[in-house]
Amino acid sequence: MPLLKIACCMAVGIVLQQFFDVPTLLILLALLVTGLGSILLHSRVAYLLALTAGGYLIAEIGYKPDAVPYHEQQTLQIRITDDGTPRTHYTRHEARLESWMDADSDAEHPNGGRLWLYADTTLHLRSGMRLRYDAKIYPFYQDSTTEASQMTARGYLGRCYLYGYDYYDPLPPSAPTLHQKAARRLEAQLATKNDASALVRAMTVGDRSDIQPPLREQYARSGLSHLMALSGLHTGMLFLLINLLLWWLPLLHRGHRLKHLLSIGAVWLFVAAAGFPVSALRAAVMCTMLQWALLSSSNYRALNSWAAAAVLLLALRPSWLFDLSFQLSFLAVWAILCWGVPLCRALHGRFRILNYISDALLISLVASIATAPLIAHQFGMIPLLGVLINPPAILLATAIVALGLLLLLLPPLTPVLQPLVLQLATWQNLLAERCAALACSSIEVHLSGTATSIIYLFFLVLTLVAWCRDRKKSVHL
Predict the structure, then answer these.
(1) What pLDDT score was predicted for residue 334?
(2) Three-state secondary structure along 126-188?
């Protein structure tokens, strides 16, 4: 699987770029020499070095927002990109810095970087609004290296504040994106403001603006937080539902081609409506490769598509390698493909129902074990009950996503679908609340970065040993 080697070498090159400052010209020379060596000498070592140098070069020239002066008064022109997350005394909005102007000059500097805007709750800012006002940009809290590195990996420049007494000039609003249109339309059709409607919007279109901190904490402690954020799981749910709904198309002339193309289009439309989150992008690439393999009657290897998704996303934005959602998403899928699927097949018996139950529990267990060290390192806790309650919770989540999408696409069915999807969301919130209240729901464990790295190195060695004993060395799905 060449894509797996490319993904691993790219990741190594990106990591090296964070620790070593090498002139770009020298990296280009190394890439040229190793590339020629791999072609002329058929050297595998030169090939791997060329891929690593390519990863370093991608990280060096990849997307980086222009620097801005911190702690200096300047005129900011920003565009609000979400409806905000309410806190006790303020609302936190995501914003784009369109430009900034130094107070000592009239020169305007275009930017495009992302900001956290902490605004007074009395201002009622909405997604799509554009503002111009005088303020300072502050870097993220340097005493919290985890937060600073995570925000930098996601392309954030820093944070700024807008108080109720600040004067600002409203500018003509920007055209709403597909994500913003979908979020507002679903909010209008739900026609209620509570935890259930907030969960439906978060799971269907990725709008988490009304998710309250207590609800977030309950989902985190119960091990169900991955259901609240629109992720690869939701994309996979949609992928399966679309294929089930279009089962009849292959009965028509060339209908199988239309079915596959419609499935690919639906998946990417869903990802666009959700705002292109990283984990959903990963799942969309893997689903597209699977659907294309079915269309072209070619072999499909899940690990190869997993590596293809990693290569594509890291080529678009190398800093995603250090993003927590990227790491959790790819770690969970890697563990499922390398350990979950083989274990499920090895334990299959004669009874299909028991196979389904064991498959659900094994997949949940493997994904939980794979992500537990990273969660303990970042959040200082490990959820324990998630292994048991994830299978029924995922069934509930599938129904919520399906009904939420139908509610979004078929407004005439609102009187029927709206109370049903809200009731399902209420049950899921209740499940998270009851599980989080149990004393055994989670344990407090904080792992250092060194300990976390050692654990994952052990997992990697164990996987390589298992592969050496397996002649196929690939996962077929």
Answers:
(1) 93
(2) CCCCEEEEEECCECCCCCCHHHHHHHHHCCEEEEEEECCCCCEEEECCCCCCHHHHHHHHHHH
- pLDDT attached to residue 276: 87
CB count, 10 Å around CB of 476? Answer: 10
Q: What does the pLDDT look like over 156-182, one tens digit per residue?
A: 888 999 988 888 889 998 888 888 888
- Chain-centre distance for alpha carbon 44: 33
* Nearest CA-CA partner of 314 in 2, 1, 12: 12
Cα–Cα distance, 249 to 226 (Å, whole number): 33
Instruction: Return all residues near 415 (Cβ < 8 A) that are at least 6 apart.
Output: none
Structure tokens at 275: 């705002």
What letter does residue 336 receive in the DSSP assignment? I
Q: Which two tokens stand for residue 292?
A: 């294309």
Q: Any idea which residue has 């000498």 for tokens?
A: 41
156-162 and 114-120 beta bridge pairing? parallel
- Using 70 as the pLDDT threshold, list the residues of the chain that sit under it: 1, 63-65, 103, 105, 141-148, 470-477
The backbone region for 304, taken as left when phi is positive above 0, alpha when psi lies in -120 to 50, beta otherwise, is alpha
Q: Can you name the residues that pair with 117 across neighbouring β-strands?
A: 93, 160
* Domains and their CATH numbers in the chain: 2-61 (no CATH), 74-171 (2.40.50), 181-469 (no CATH)
Q: DSSP 3-state assignment of 329?
A: helix
Q: Are 391 and 380 in contact (CB under 8 A)?
A: no
Q: Are 168 and 125 in contact (CB under 8 A)?
A: no
- Per-residue pLDDT, 107: 80
* Residue 401: count of CB within 10 angstroms of its CB: 23
Structure tokens at 466: 């298992």
Classify burial at 382, counting beta carbons within 10 Å of its beta carbon; exposed 0-12, middle 13-18, buried 19 or more: buried
| Dist CA 93 CA 108 (whole Å) | 24
How far apart CA 15 and CA 56 sit, in angstroms, is 8
Tokens of 194: 């509570």
Closest CA to 189 of 201, 178, 175, 180: 201
Contact 407, 426 (CB under 8 A): no
d(CA 35, CA 29): 10
Task: Report the pLDDT value the prediction gives residue 145, as an integer from 0 to 100.
Answer: 52
CB 282 within 8 A of CB 232: yes
* pLDDT tens track for 217-245: 899 888 888 888 777 888 888 888 888 88
